[in-house]
Description:
Heme Oxygenase, Chain A; homodimer; mainly alpha; 0% strand; 238 residues
Amino acid sequence: xxxLLTKDNFVRRLRAEGARRYQDRHPFTILLNKGKLSEKQxxxxxLNWFYFQKSLPLKDGAIISNCPIAVVRRxxxxxxxxxxxYGELEGGIEGWLRFAQASGLDRQIVLTSKPISxxxxxxxxxxxxxxxxxxxxxxxxxxxxxFLPAVVDRRINALARYYNHIVKPEGLRYFxxxxxxxxxxxxxxxxxxxxxADSNELxxxxxRAVLFxxxxxxxxxxxxxxxxxxxxxxxxxP
Amino acid sequence: xxxLLTKDNFVRRLRAEGARRYQDRHPFTILLNKGKLSEKQxxxxxLNWFYFQKSLPLKDGAIISNCPIAVVRRxxxxxxxxxxxYGELEGGIEGWLRFAQASGLDRQIVLTSKPISxxxxxxxxxxxxxxxxxxxxxxxxxxxxxFLPAVVDRRINALARYYNHIVKPEGLRYFxxxxxxxxxxxxxxxxxxxxxADSNELxxxxxRAVLFxxxxxxxxxxxxxxxxxxxxxxxxxP
Lengths: 238, 238
């Protein structure tokens, strides 16, 4: 029998296979990081990415509803709280909304406008995946967060340097808290995956789930690039 | 109570709302029709579209498995035969394979290579939709074929005029038979939808299913454009 893929090797494979398709390499991200986006293109990204942001608690709800292990459910419930906020603490959805407002978008428009269809398809396919797969694979989709801190650092730099005429400083607040969050969350997810995916078959499945999740992020950017860089689509439907 | 949307008005709304996003308007199709694609880009389209082609009998199987009405199932089974072929008659999958071969692609490569991930996501979301929606909505997704004849005519002209150094004449055979097929199939689908979607609520659902299906086609082209026009990705994984 093959030796069980260790945690270190699991992460190594994730980095090797995942890095190739991580959103940081997407042409849209490259434009963003180089300060080449127009105000409208930046806003289009913020507006459309909100649909992904909004879908996260639904995805996490699906993972919980598939999971028979109470300790895992309890860990995972905190994700939903992190997205939706609790008590005084504002969640990730509100954080993104404030980022949008600091970038000149109307709150009501962000809340009510629909994403372009390619973004809708991609995000919904992630939600679907979480609903239909095992909870371990659902948890594994969030391992894309392993790669997030480097991306967020570059994003903060780009926003502060190139887009400060569009994005007010308070708009960066969300991203400043995001890195600590992402490190904590991806640690938890990795621990769960390594603990419960206790065969190479399950670990391979988990690995494929992360790569699928990266493909989703990539597709979101494909659609945004097509609509707002290749073409000049309206920012939002009336 | 609101008057029932007539068949004519249903088709009129379909044309009005559908035409806006039909694949004919996509930047990739525009390049194709103007003869602006390189050999590799044309082959990339053929190779990746094959994944859509291959998924059609699975989609139709899902529609059948959701449908409790035997006369409808019997009508719909002929779709699967049309894709997979029967007796001496070659099906749509084989037709596309021959088109690929006539365009310089190796049959074995077409059969075994994976689509780029955005194409995979989009096609799988259509399959998913068919599995999870009512059979009427599943049937309605095929109403995009109403728009197909005009597209196919332009495609045949472009292939014959601009790409005759790439595509051998026998490669066009599949498209020449496609129009009659599409007219027959969309007539059947429209008849079924109008017969069984007997409330405005159901007709609206059917309408949304067609528009969703058009979004899928659009997203396939977004991904191909991103990978092979914006970037220069490898034609297929080794």
